[in-house]
Amino acid sequence: MKRVSTVTVRKRLVTVFLIGILFFGIIDFRLGYVQFVIGDKLMGLADESWSRDILFEPERGLILDVNGEVLAENVTAPSVVVVPRQIKNPQETAEKLAAILHISVEKAYKQITKSAMSSQIRPEGIKISEEQEKAIRTLDMEGVYLAKDSKRHYPFGDDLAHVLGFTGIDNQGLMGLELYHDEKLSGEKGSLSFYSDAKGGKLKQLADVYKAPEDGLDLKTTIDSRVQTIIERELDLAVAKYNPDGALAIAVNPKNGSVLGMAARPAFHPEKYQEVDADIYNRNLPIWSTYEPGSTFKIITLAAALEEGVVDLQKDHYHDSGSIKVGGAKLRCWKSGGHGHQSYLEVVENSCNPGFVNLGQKLGKERLFSYIRDFGFGTKTGIDLQGEGNGILFKPENVGPVELATTAFGQGVSVTPIQQVMAVSAAVNGGYLYEPFVAKEWIDPQTNSTVKEHQPVLKERIISDATSKEVRNALESVVAKGTGRPAYVDGYRVGGKTGTAQKVGPDGKYMSNNHIVSFIGFAPADDPEIVVYVAVDNPKGTVQFGGVVTAPIVGTIIGDSLNALGVKRRKDGLEKEYKWPEQPKVEVPSLVGLKKKEIVEFQTNLAIETSGKGDYIIDQSPKPGVKVEQGSKIRIYLSNKK
């Protein structure tokens, strides 16, 4: 028998011992790694494997106007959920569902025979109509359930559609405010979590975990539904009358940049956006469209010239022969033969192109374009809506004498409507350029308390109070005596400027008899509460001038809006200067208390209708003092008692 030496035994024992230490060290390291390093991850995977979640959708936040009027809300619209294991006759069930949901039997059969605990028929079974809901409830099919769900509803139909936007099948924002503020409006989903075994059986020894959904915040906007309704009405009338290629309108409060109303044509219904071309709902014209502004841009040249002191509107004069030569080009006035000798105030009133070219030359390239950039042109305004355009300005190195001249009267430069509105707001509000905004405040739907309020953003001050006052006075004169007379509103001091811009065709040349006509107005002229811009693209069957087409629309919007906002009418301000064939309005006299036979003298300029019987007039409509067109009807109410 071979003997093993003591040394060998010791070596073997040491080797075994070291191997044991290494083995148990590896095990300990592995246990520590699993326990302390990846333990949470493994527990999460195990939890995910065992747990089953039932999700609960939150209520999407409401969208409200500035006075709390609901602009977007949620209405009940159940969704179809099927449990395949509970359906005993799949073919029959598939045929019934297919008929109700207007899908093929094959698609319905595939959904209800899935190897799943439950299944939805998407998209046809999501947010179904009342008729479909009633049909499914009546048939009472086994394994077919109606889950509580909701869809977005817009009470004002297609009003404000481009601003509000719309949501998708899962209530996610897809456009407009719904998209821009989707995170705050959508809220957070809730859930009921329970644990189950591999076969889906519930593990009763483990407690369920419930997380309540957090409803989205309500959004109160700056929109005033009264102003918006007036805008929508006037655009509808303009479309019916002129059959244009498009139209748009914006109303803002110049004191803080808040948007009071905004609309575009063609419009769409947010709940039926799939029925129109994507170009219609993807293009919010007031902030997206870019075009030459025409004469409305002259307000910027005027403000710059006054601020720099290069002109005195009363003392300085300009002779307009009908055209002006610049750099070899002949730039014409809109009036054949020109306006002759006129003060610079009359240059503004008459919207005289050569006169404004002269102002641009007095300012020079650097100063004029510096003011244009300061007023916000060439960059986005920052409004809280998607799809805003930048506009296009000449590069400084490309500005020669002709480019300077045409820019001075609004040709060769492209801007967006929202840029124009904010720039003119700055010109008439004391010189303050604000960032436009629609979202005013966020409200907790449970407590009805304000969570966050938007503060107006002042970008910069561009001109002085004195210059702004001169601009306002000049533009009030345009409406009382100049090209903007159709925008005149009795009882309100209105200022404004017309615009008639040529459109560039596919060949890069200006199109004939195809213009974008516009008007931008504000009131009251001494302390503006509202600025309104309206543009109509290629109006048919009319002379394509801003003073003819859009000035009356803006005047009506301003008059009706100020009345709705509670701004009282006044008797101060400039009187309108009437020109043939215009007829001055007639002030309605006080007829109450007179005898019927005494009103003969008033029938020269007014048509009088009577109601009731008797000799004495006890009431009348309109009330005394209101100015109406000559020949308007005045209704009087008669009685035998005075």
Task: State the gist of this model.
The chain has 642 residues and is an alpha+beta fold.
Provide the descriptors you would attach to this structure in a database record.
642 residues, Trypsin Inhibitor V, Chain A, 20 helices, extended
Share of helix among residues? 25-40%
Stated plainly, the CATH topology of the domain at 225-564 is called: Beta-lactamase
Broad shape: extended
Distance between the termini: 151 Å
Stretches where pLDDT is under 50 for at least 5 consecutive residues are: none
- How does the helix and strand content classify structurally? alpha+beta
Task: Identify the CATH class of the domain at 225-564.
Answer: Alpha Beta
Please outline the major beta sheet: 6 strands, mixed
Work out the radius of gyration.
36 Å
CATH homologous superfamily descriptor of the domain at 225-564? DD-peptidase/beta-lactamase superfamily
The side-by-side strand order for the widest beta sheet comes to 7-3-2-12-20-21
Mean pLDDT: 87
Counting DSSP H or I runs of 4 or more residues, the number of helices is: 20
At CATH level 2, the architecture of the domain at 225-564 is 3-Layer(aba) Sandwich
Strand % is 15-25%
Total DSSP E strands: 30
